[in-house]
């Protein structure tokens, strides 16, 4: 059961229960937003990851809601520090992402928002795979330096508008994503290359350019669902306060 929502909320620490797994996330919803972007991570220290928070901030500056969330439990993360097994298990990560998506469609603050995925490296591949499981719910995917090779056989099933972003000096990933783009059957797809960027996008201005491209893609494809229902739902809650 969810608690009845209150208004003027800006940020929440949320826990998504998926079976025995408990995944912690940070949810921020700007006023008047039309879409929410899921930014998954694969370590337990997401709240201390400056770059992820900065990127989420840049998206919110354009009016998008964000949820930064771990796809791994603390126990899985501890095991991965030695083996890196879970963070490269695309099927496992995609299953978690699907569960988070289903949670967002039920949570009162987000149930009327169209959902987008922003993935990096392995989570980029997981985002595309998860989108094939929820094609009517996920409105857009952006993958930055995505490991599309980890689920190449599934690319032909992608039906979600997809933007692939790769650094111009990240030659192996660039070739991988060029191949992936050719295999994705949806018409609304694009590959953006940031010329001087390497795989981590640490170069000056590179992360900001990723955010600009991603926010444009999401704002184009994420539209609020059932606008009339949103107005009625909001009015009903206001009358109860």
Which labels suit this protein?
alpha/beta; 38% helix; 241 residues; globular; disordered N terminus; disordered C terminus; Rossmann fold; 23% strand; eight-stranded mixed β-sheet; 8 strands
Summarize the structure in words.
The chain has 241 residues and is of the alpha/beta class. It has one domain: Alpha/Beta hydrolase fold, catalytic domain (Rossmann fold), CATH 3.40.50. The protein has seven helices and eight strands. The protein has helices at 50-60, 74-83, 90-104, 122-133, 171-183, 206-221, 227-240; strands at 11-18, 21-28, 35-41, 65-70, 114-120, 138-144, 162-167, 189-194. An eight-stranded mixed sheet has the order 1-2-4-3-5-6-7-8, sandwiched between helices. The chain is globular, with a radius of gyration of 17 Å. The two termini are 19 Å apart. Residues 1-9 and 226-241 have low confidence and may be disordered.
Radius of gyration, whole Å:
17 Å
Strand order, sheet with most strands: 1-2-4-3-5-6-7-8
Q: Number of folding domains?
A: 1
CATH topology call = Rossmann fold
Structure summarized in a few sentences:
The protein has helices at 50-60, 74-83, 90-104, 122-133, 171-183, 206-221, 227-240, and strands at residues 11-18, 21-28, 35-41, 65-70, 114-120, 138-144, 162-167, 189-194. The protein is of the alpha/beta class and 241 residues long.
Give me the secondary-structure topology:
Layout (H helix, E strand, L loop, with lengths): L10 E8 L2 E8 L6 E7 L8 H11 L4 E6 L3 H10 L6 H15 L9 E7 L1 H12 L4 E7 L17 E6 L3 H13 L5 E6 L11 H16 L5 H14 L1
Parallel strand pairs: 3-4, 3-5, 5-6, 6-7, 7-8
Antiparallel strand pairs: 1-2, 2-4
Helix pairs in contact: 1-6, 3-4
